[in-house]
């Protein structure tokens, strides 16, 4: 997650999402044209089967691409959330263990001017301190005075780091929001494609049923013709009647007409 090209990923995501949306719109228009032709009856069985197969193939490929992009964005969302959780955990531990954030302990010993005897001793002119206790107190007080500039420097450094962390956190939050919104939009496109594929499947099933029914009708007609042919060919008495009628008309024609 370090040196994460968030802007480049967002730009590529937007481009791919726009391409998927445009393809989805084109497939919807194609489906509308096909439904209009079916409603008008201006189609043949072969053309309908071919167009249905092409539409199903295109929809399946677009659904596969949409699903892959959705899986990639879901994985990125999970990685961003895991990174933010680790960052919060480590930042909490560091803030607890950072010695620079601790305040200096207050001095428990009273200042020398709070003691009347020391104040009286300080009022007398002397080049050296009257005793070694005050020297020790001054030596003990000196580290506390020396720590004040370093604490100010540490606080200023922390104040400079905090805006950077806030900007980084805001950018990560915006990236996470964009990814989640893109995933929801892709989910809508995926649902729409699934609905279109289901409708196309129902249409293909109806076409298949009609073709099966037509094939059954053709087979029944062929069977009826074969039965009639067998009946005529096996009925010799009928053939004799037809032959007798033909001879009768021939004799009548020869005797009376000729």
Automatic annotation (TrEMBL):
Keyword Transferase included in the entry's annotation: no
Keywords: Membrane, Protein transport, Transmembrane, Transmembrane helix, Transport
One GO-annotated biological process of the protein: vesicle fusion
Residues passing through the membrane, by range: 237-257
Entry GO CC: Golgi membrane; SNARE complex
InterPro entries associated with the record: SNARE, Syntaxin, Syntaxin/epimorphin_CS, T_SNARE_dom
Domain T-SNARE coiled-coil homology: 166-228
Gene Ontology MF: a single term: SNARE binding
PANTHER family named in the record: SYNTAXIN, SYNTAXIN-31
Family indicated by similarity: Belongs to the syntaxin family.
Protein's UniProt name: t-SNARE coiled-coil homology domain-containing protein
């Amino acid at each position: 997650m370090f040196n994460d090209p968030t802007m480049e990923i967002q730009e590529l995501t937007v481009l791919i999402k726009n391409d998927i949306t445009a393809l989805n719109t084109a497939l919807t228009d194609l489906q509308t044209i096909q439904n209009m032709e079916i409603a008008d009856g201006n189609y043949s069985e072969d053309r309908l089967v071919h167009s249905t197969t092409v539409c199903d193939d295109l929809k399946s490929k677009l659904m596969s691409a949409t699903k892959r992009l959705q899986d990639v964005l879901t994985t990125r969302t999970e990685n961003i959330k895991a990174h933010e959780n680790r960052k919060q955990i480590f930042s909490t531990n560091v803030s607890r263990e950072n010695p620079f954030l601790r305040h200096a302990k207050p001095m428990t010993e009273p200042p020398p001017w709070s003691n009347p005897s020391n104040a009286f001793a300080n009022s007398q002119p002397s080049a050296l301190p009257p005793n070694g206790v005050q020297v020790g107190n001054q030596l003990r007080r000196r580290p506390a005075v020396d720590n004040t500039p370093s604490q100010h420097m540490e606080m200023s450094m922390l104040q400079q780091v905090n805006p950077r962390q806030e900007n980084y956190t805001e950018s990560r939050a915006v990236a996470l929001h964009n990814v989640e919104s893109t995933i929801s939009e892709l989910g809508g496109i995926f649902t729409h494609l699934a609905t279109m594929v289901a409708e196309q499947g129902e249409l293909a099933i109806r076409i298949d049923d009609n073709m099966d029914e037509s094939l059954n009708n053709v087979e029944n007609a062929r069977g009826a013709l074969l039965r009639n042919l067998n009946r005529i060919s096996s009925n010799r008495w009928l053939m004799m009647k037809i032959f007798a009628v033909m001879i009768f008309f021939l004799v009548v024609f020869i005797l009376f007409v000729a």
